[in-house]
């Protein structure tokens, strides 16, 4: 903070203290209450509650007039004239919809992700929203969990970098700027580890793993100045996150000195009783307030019981004052005390050409090329006379948008079919067939038409995957293969022997083992948002080379889950030679344990596609990794370089990744950990030396002695195009004895 910031902060604290001093207990509690809006209607109840200072924040109200009127009531009719926070789930866009967060993560491009968040903030702020419930920085290693779509993937480093980018985009350089809205890092913490990938389920995470994996992106978001934190619905190690003093007191406030505010998730305070932690709403209010939840979303335990709890001395009045101050501080930082009203004239129109261009670029960079046999892609439009476009997702402006798009308008959507038609001249005949009514359809009624379309065509483009509603909150799947009769449709079309390109739109990684062998090329497009069509068309026809890389591992079959690249080695890591497959076991085989390793009998021990994987239209080769100082002291920086060559004839952007392994630690360490990455443009034939500077602090972890520390010893370092890279060097970290 510079001197001016320090002065402003000091002024804010004085202002807040004075305000809190003047508040009645009911007015204080009012600031802690977040209620659902009435979607363009202000009920008498809401009007009186705002005028009476009994509500501090409203969510799900997006009508500008209504929001301005609510703010007017708050500052003209309430005794202390305190403006309202207006919250909304602006998760991957507002009117303009960007790729789902998991898709944005596949860009590995923090600058792009920040710009998407900025546009989203601008559009949301233009109606009066001043607070978003994003970014979601839950680490998830279970693609069955529907909320993987909202996540930034499986890796703490990638999630931290991109989560920070989102915070910056939403909040801008000052929360008080036009178009800045307060961000909320969620769901604190451990939600992504819900057992069996079933939403709201229990999470059991040892403290070391919690700190080394799940908490890291939250810490990064706080260091970047995130205004608020939302608690998770889930039980963490026996204490639901919404009442978890270890998380909310010890880590968040004592260790990290967070001075924004904490909001519960929807009803998660009263659900403490359903969890079985408390017996009634009064106890639930006590547990949540004692742990450090400042604001209650949806349920009303604070409104009903907090005053009583304070009067009984169970919640100290200083605690209540602190909760109120945390919220007022955010309102102050947002500049709401100066002006809570929204003037449409200050904002560009939503979904304007610039915003659509941004969505187009984001979707392009999010697409991952998983397979491209015999370089079928890109398609040369002058060599195709007829094209089959098949599938329920080829021309559906709603389904391409993905989960959490309350304010997205499918009227702006440009679908693949329309974009392909626009791109191709009339000389190419397009044969469209849905094939299946929805992605879940089991009947084969549409197959005949699809097969006819394919028969008449030189190339077949197949748009399959999952509709929006199959991922997102509470939409988890136990089987993550393509739903409905999609696999059968692929088999039938594959049998025709035509070049077949599979474009998948989905909010999660799918188990594609049964289908990748039947198609010639596969593009993973996630749910790409408003501009899905033009972005996919650009990739299919080679306007740009694909550059996305997987932010999450793709399993072969669901039984491999959890499968993620930064696993532990085990005492018996599998080798190809030690693996036995079920079909090779002789009849009457006797049990032997010697020589056995850690594998499944019925599936290869590798993922279908590893974390970080993604092809492009050129051949990229890595060579000559060098560590410039192969022995460093703790506190110094390691310089690592490698050559990256574009051996093809197209311009590409390659995401160069750096991984590290700490060979021996006071706790066992993952076999690889992503520590840095760079997006590198490469012209045809160009070779570049890519250099990374890795400070030893990046090697620190929460260790056996409950300290974040760099432990001296031997390390391996890799540079490559995905987590399965083998281009390796070594370095050693030694104690700094000079201190
Ligand atoms: C979700 C949150 C969301 C909130 C408000 C809850 O159901 O878990 O992520 O921000 O609703 O809509």
Tell me about this structure.
The protein has 739 residues and is α/β, with parallel strands linked by helices. It is 28% helix and 18% strand. It has a 6-stranded mixed β-sheet with strand order 11-16-15-14-12-13, with helices on one face. The model has no long low-confidence stretch (mean pLDDT 97). The site of beta-D-glucopyranose has 6 residues, from loops.
**Strand line-up of the largest beta sheet:** 11-16-15-14-12-13
Bound molecules: beta-D-glucopyranose
Q: Gyration radius, to the nearest Å?
A: 27 Å
Main β sheet profile: 6 strands, mixed
pLDDT < 50 runs, ≥5 residues: none
Percent range for β-strand residues: 15-25%
Helical content band: 25-40%
The average pLDDT value, as a whole number, equals 97
Shape: globular
**Which structural class is indicated by helix and strand composition?**
alpha/beta
Question: Number of helical segments?
Answer: 20
How many DSSP E strands? 26
Distance between the termini: 29 Å
Can you describe this structure in just a few lines?
The chain has 20 helices and 26 strands. The chain has 739 residues and is α/β, with parallel strands linked by helices.
Could you give the topology of this structure?
Elements: H1 3-22, H2 25-31, E1 33-36, H3 44-51, E2 57-59, H4 64-77, E3 85-88, H5 101-105, H6 110-125, E4 131-132, H7 156-171, E5 184-188, H8 207-214, H9 216-223, E6 228-231, E7 235-236, E8 239-240, H10 245-255, E9 261-263, H11 271-275, H12 281-291, E10 296-297, H13 301-311, H14 317-333, H15 353-366, E11 368-372, E12 386-390, H16 416-423, E13 429-433, H17 447-455, E14 459-465, H18 486-494, E15 500-505, H19 513-516, E16 521-524, H20 532-540, E17 620-627, E18 631-633, E19 637-646, E20 652-662, E21 673-682, E22 687-695, E23 701-702, E24 708-709, E25 713-720, E26 728-734
Parallel strand pairs: 1-2, 1-10, 2-3, 3-4, 5-6, 6-9, 12-13, 12-14, 14-15, 15-16, 18-26
Antiparallel strand pairs: 7-8, 11-16, 17-19, 19-22, 20-21, 20-25, 23-24, 25-26
Helix pairs in contact: 1-14, 2-13, 6-7, 6-15, 7-9, 12-13, 15-20, 16-20
Beta-D-glucopyranose is lined by residues 89, 133, 186, 265-266, 473.
């Amino acid at each position: 903070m510079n001197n001016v910031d320090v002065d402003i902060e000091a002024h804010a604290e004085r202002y807040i203290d004075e305000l809190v001093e003047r508040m009645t207990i009911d007015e204080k509690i009012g600031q802690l209450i977040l209620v659902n809006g009435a979607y363009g209607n202000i009920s008498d109840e809401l009007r009186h509650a705002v005028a009476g200072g009994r509500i501090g924040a409203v969510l799900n109200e997006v009508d500008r007039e209504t929001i301005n009127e609510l703010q007017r009531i708050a500052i003209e009719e309430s005794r202390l004239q305190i403006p309202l926070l207006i919250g909304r789930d602006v998760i991957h866009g507002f009117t303009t919809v960007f790729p789902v967060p998991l898709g944005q993560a596949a860009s590995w491009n923090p600058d792009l992700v920040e710009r998407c968040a900025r546009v989203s903030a601008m559009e949301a702020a233009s109606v009066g929203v001043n607070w978003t419930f994003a970014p979601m920085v839950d680490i998830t290693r279970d693609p069955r969990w529907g909320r993987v779509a909202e996540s930034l993937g499986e890796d703490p480093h990638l999630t931290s970098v991109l989560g920070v980018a989102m915070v910056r985009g939403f909040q801008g350089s000052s929360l008080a700027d036009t178009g800045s809205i307060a961000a909320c890092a969620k769901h604190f913490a451990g939600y992504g580890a819900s057992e069996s990938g079933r939403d709201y389920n229990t999470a059991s995470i040892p403290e070391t793993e919690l700190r080394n994996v799940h908490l890291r992106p939250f810490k990064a978001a706080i260091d970047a100045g995130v205004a608020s934190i939302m608690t998770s619905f889930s039980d963490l190690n026996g204490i639901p996150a919404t009442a978890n003093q270890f998380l909310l007191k010890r880590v968040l406030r004592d260790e990290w000195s967070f001075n924004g505010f904490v909001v519960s998730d929807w009803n998660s305070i009263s659900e403490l009783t359903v969890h079985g932690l408390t017996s009634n709403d009064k106890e639930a209010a006590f547990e949540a307030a004692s742990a450090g939840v400042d604001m209650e979303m949806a349920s009303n335990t604070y409104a009903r019981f907090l005053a009583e709890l304070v009067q009984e001395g169970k919640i100290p009045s200083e605690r209540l004052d602190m909760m109120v101050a945390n919220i007022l501080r955010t309102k102050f930082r947002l500049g709401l005390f100066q002006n809570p009203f929204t003037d449409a004239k200050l904002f560009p129109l939503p979904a304007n050409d610039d915003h659509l261009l941004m969505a187009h670029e984001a979707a392009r960079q999010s697409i991952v090329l998983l397979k491209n046999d015999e370089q079928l892609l890109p398609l040369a439009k002058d060599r195709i006379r007829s094209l089959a476009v098949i599938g329920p997702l080829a021309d559906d402006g709603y389904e391409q948008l993905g989960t959490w798009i309350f304010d997205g308008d499918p009227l702006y959507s440009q679908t693949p079919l329309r974009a392909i038609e626009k791109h191709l001249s009339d000389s190419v005949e397009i044969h469209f067939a849905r094939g299946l009514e929805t992605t879940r359809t089991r009947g084969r009624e549409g197959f005949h038409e699809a097969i006819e379309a394919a028969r008449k065509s030189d190339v077949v483009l197949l748009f399959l995957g999952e509709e929006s509603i199959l991922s997102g909150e509470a939409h988890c799947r136990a089987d993550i293969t393509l739903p409905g009769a999609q696999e059968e449709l692929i088999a039938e079309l594959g049998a025709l022997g035509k070049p077949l390109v599979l474009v998948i739109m989905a909010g999660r990684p799918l188990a594609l083992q049964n289908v990748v062998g039947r198609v010639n090329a596969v593009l993973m497009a996630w749910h790409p948002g408003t501009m899905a069509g033009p972005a996919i068309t650009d990739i299919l026809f080679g306007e740009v080379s694909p550059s996305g890389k997987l932010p999450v591992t793709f399993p072969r079959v669901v039984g491999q889950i959890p499968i993620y690249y930064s696993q532990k080695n085990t005492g018996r890591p599998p080798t190809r030679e030690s693996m036995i497959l079920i079909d090779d076991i002789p009849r009457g085989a006797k049990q032997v344990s010697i020589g056995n390793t850690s594998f499944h009998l019925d599936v290869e021990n590798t993922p279908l596609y590893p974390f970080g994987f993604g092809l492009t239209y050129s051949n990229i080769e890595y060579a000559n990794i060098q560590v410039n100082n192969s022995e460093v002291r703790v506190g110094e920086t390691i310089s690592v370089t490698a050559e990256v060559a574009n051996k093809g004839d197209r311009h590409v952007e390659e995401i160069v990744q750096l991984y590290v392994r700490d060979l021996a630690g006071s706790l066992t360490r993952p076999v690889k950990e992503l520590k840095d990455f760079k997006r590198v443009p490469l012209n045809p034939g160009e070779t570049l030396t890519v250099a990374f500077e890795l400070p030893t602090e990046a090697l620190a972890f929460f260790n056996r002695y409950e300290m974040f520390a760099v432990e001296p010893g031997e390390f391996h370092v890799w540079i490559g195009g995905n987590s399965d890279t083998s281009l390796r060097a070594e370095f050693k970290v030694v104690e700094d004895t000079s201190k």
